[in-house]
Amino acid sequence: MAGCLDASSVAAVLARMAETRPRVHCLTNTVAQNVTANMLLAFGAIPSMAVHVDEVAGFAQGAGAILINLGTISAEGELAIPKLLEAARDHHKPLVLDPVFVELSPLRRHIAREVLRLPDVVVRGNATEMAALASELDAAERVTRVTTGKVDHIEGKRGALAIAHGHPLMTKVTGLGCASSALVAACCAVETDPVIAAGAALTAFGIAGEIAAAKSAGPGSFAVNLIDALASLDEALLRRHMGERA
Ligand SMILES: Nc1ncnc2c1ncn2[C@@H]1O[C@H](COP(=O)(O)OP(=O)(O)OP(=O)(O)O)[C@@H](O)[C@H]1O
Ligand SMILES: Cc1ncsc1CCO
Ligand SMILES: [Mg+2]
User: Fold this and answer.
1) Mean pLDDT (10-residue bins), the chain, 246 residues
2) Cα(215)–Cα(63) distance, integer angstroms
3) Which phi and psi angles does 144 have, rounded to 5°?
């Protein structure tokens, strides 16, 4: 049965984030680029976003983790992906795939298959995307599946977690799924177990969503308050929202 993390486990991952400030190299989409960079900074990580085929390898080799998001994949981005996969393989970097709209595009399915030739990939998508990619995920070696929604489901080699945090307003701001994938990548840079890393990222993000929603009049102010809430998380706030005593 799927478990959940306690506040001290999430706080331990966040403490390592604050201490080491990992850089996450993001090949992401033009819609979610800004919100993704802001969420990474609020989380204590550092975003980099280079796409050019002649510089992505260098950026990825020195990063703590790599994100490949297919949301607005371009011809330039497609050329960069083999360089990112090579950097992940040769330099043992955690890699997160966000297969945005894979159900709508044979090109995206082809790219996702290429990415999943690498073992140990973490895939974060919504229920539609994860269902569309089911056979590719079944064929992949040591993949971690992260399916977000009202409840987030994480399944990996070393167990399963179900995270019931967040707020419906999270579906009314574009790019928050994309940002959640970047936060999962950031946690993978400081936590070797991808199930715990994804669980910590999504617990923190969900609780930040709950805190932000309580202060917001609608999706616009929610987007701003979510950045503030993510930046202000500490163990006491986590405990309170997880129903644990101080
Ligand atoms: N109904 C809901 N209630 C609470 N939290 C939710 C709900 N739906 C999504 N979330 C949270 O919102 C975040 C984004 O997940 P979602 O599944 O909406 O991503 P997505 O569909 O890929 O989004 P996008 O493509 O717009 O970036 C996750 O942290 C998830 O837990
Ligand atoms: C709306 C949209 N279109 C491509 S990427 C993106 C952001 C949410 O995935
Ligand atoms: Mg998405």
Assistant:
1) 91 98 98 98 98 98 98 98 98 99 98 98 98 98 98 95 98 98 99 98 98 98 98 97 85
2) 35
3) -110, 125
Distance in Å, CA 47 to ligand 3 centroid: 18
Delineate the domains of the chain, giving CATH numbers in brackets: 7-241 (3.40.1190.20)
- Between the CA of residue 108 and those of 3, 71, 87, 114, what are the distances in Å? 32, 9, 21, 10
**Protein residue with least CA distance to atom 8, ligand 2:** 175
Sequence letter at residue 206: G
Q: How many residues does the chain have?
A: 246
Nearest ligand, measured from the Cα of 207 = 1
Protein residue closest via CA to atom 21 of ligand 1: 126
DSSP assignment letter at 174: T
Q: 181-204 burial string, b = 16+ CB within 10 Å, else e?
A: bbbbbbbbbbbebbbbbbbbbbbb
Model ipTM? Answer: 0.98
Map residue 105 onto helix, strand or coil.
coil
Q: How many Å is the Cα radius of gyration of the chain? A: 17
d(CA 127, CA 95): 20
